[in-house]
Each structure stands twice: as C-alpha cells, then as structure tokens.
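REQUEST FORM: STRUCTURE PREDICTION
Request ID: SP-0412
Submitted by: Lab K.M.
Chain count: 1
Length (residues): 360
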Amino acid sequence: MPFEKGSVSLRVFKSMTGSISPHDMVEKFASHPIPSIDMIPASGCDGWATSRHLLDNNITDDSAIVAGKVRLSLVSAEKKIPGALFKTECKLEELALMEARGVNFISRSERKEIAQSIKERMLPDMPPSLAGIDMVTTADGCYSAAISDSQMDFFTVSWNKALGTMAMAYTPTLAAKMLCNFDVLALNATSFSPEVLDSYVDQDIGTEFLTWLWYFSENCSGVHGEFAFMLDGPFTFVHEGEGAHEIIIRKGNPGISQEAKSALMAGKKLKKAKLTVVRDQEEWTCLIDSSWAFNSLKLPKTEPLDPVSLFEERIGSINTFVEAIEDVFKRFMDIRTDELKWKEEVTFIKQWVAGKASKV
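STATUS: Completed
RESULT:
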C-alpha cells in the first residue's frame, strides 16, 4: 500500500463541515462496506475496506485505525466479460442462428439482442475486477489517492455519503480561501510574456503559482524559510487561446529548451512539472500539477522501523511536504494580492522570460 511504503500519489482533501473523531468515522464507514465477493452484483458496486486487502469489509477500530488515523480504501468492484471471450460467444450464437435459418446474415438488432443475452447469462459468474483508492485521515480532512477528476468525484461523493459531511479537493483556489481568506475570482488575469497582453490569457491561480514557483526557484534561489524549491521537466504548458493549447516537453533539459522559451513567450504557463523540495538532508520529489495533485511523491529515506512507527513517520513526512507547499504559496499570495508588489513582480518575471528567450 502506497501510504506504507514506496512512492505515493495523492490529493489533499479538506472536510468543510467540521471534524469527526476516528471512532465515529470508523462506525460510519463500517456501515458502507464493500460486499463480500459472493455478494457483488453483476452491475458492480462500491464500498469501503480496510488497508489489509480490498475485500476486507470487517471495519473496526482495531483494523481501521493506525497511529490514531483512519486508514481505509474506497473500493469499486465491477464484473466484466473478457473482450475476446465475449466476441467469441457472440459469434458462436450468431453462427448458430444463421445455420438454423439457412441464411448468411442476421440483422443488427438481432446481434444486439444476442450480445445482451450473453451479458445477462455470463456476467453473474464473472469474477469482479477490483480497484481501490487508498485514504488516510488528517486533522481536518484526508490524504487520498484520488488523482484523476473521475476518481476525485467518486471519492468525494463516497466520503460525503458515508460520513454525512462535505469534503473538497484542496486546490490552490481553496487554499487561497482557507490560508489567506481571499477569493481568487477577484483577481484579474496576468500575462507573464512581454509579448502577450493580459486580455489574451486566462486567470488561473494554479498555473500562475506553478510558473511563479519556477521563476522563484531560478531567479531567487528558490529558498523559502528552511526549504528550497526546484522545478524541472517534464514540463506541461497550457494556454487557452489560438494555436496549441497544451504542449509537453520531456527530453533533454526542458528548462532551457527552445520549446520551453517559446511556450513562455506565447503566454503559456506551467500546468505540470517535476518538483523537488529540500530541507537539510531531506528531499521530497513529485510530479505536481496546477490543481495540486501530487503524483509519485518520493519521501525522504527513513531508518528501519516497525510498521506502525514507519506509517506514522511517513504520514508526518507528507504533512511536512504539504506544509512547505502551503508556506511558499502564502508567500506567493502575499505578493499576488498586493497590487504594487504584483506589478513589480510581474516586471521581474517578464524580464526572466525575455532573458530565457534571448538565449534561444
């Protein structure tokens, strides 16, 4: 399980309707378990399981609480007929029907009826395909492996259904509200290119922050407090407008490539990049996107520990990483929400962009 070992991909979710004790959470999650394997319907289903395995629906304090945190998986179970087997079964029945009629073809509607009858006959006997989204609670929400938009929607609906509380993905927009009490919708769009007007770019606090962080890491040493930040490729640039909306630069040294310089000059901003955060001898690396999904987050190495202590240390390390992101984001927001500071900062950023372009 990723929270226990190896790299972990996660989003932060915040509970918007108050906190619940771990014991009460367990009771609520236990009332929405994944069914036992013989009870999974042909139509599929979902539910919660412990971290021991995806069909462990015995959710109790002993099985679900680790180091004071609720550790569960949201499981979806779906029954599918393997594609090759399904096509073969359909063909066999179609051939049998044609032979019985003495014809060389059957209608499209009849083929659809055959396919439906085979699904109804075979699906109940198919073993379920299982997929799990790992989750561990925090003081005010949780860390979840719900990275994609569809996973995020599925997770929030399931969380809300089980707990009766509202959870939201912790995006830069929400962080600005929670950390700085500021609504980013009040901000005007800003171009970082000396050749593109503000009116030709969209206002997106996530891409602004990520691009600013790249500038900050290159032009201002990237040091904030006890942490140092560095961005590297692969880079994904985005800009809604004419021409290519999104480009990905992977090979070579993307940060100094002609393609990266051209993207910045065209008014594009960073949507995804590799982020490295360093404190003394500790290092965190991940692929970060502008909505704050952290993919393949590698944590600092630890000494051999018992499983519970290791889990506790890894969650503490994730907490430290998230707090470092929050802290440098607050620095960005302090500049972004001050008209004079931001005007001066944008001037420096445009000089940085122009300096990159002049080296092409």
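NOTES: The two ends are 45 Å apart (CA to CA).
Reviewed by: T.R.
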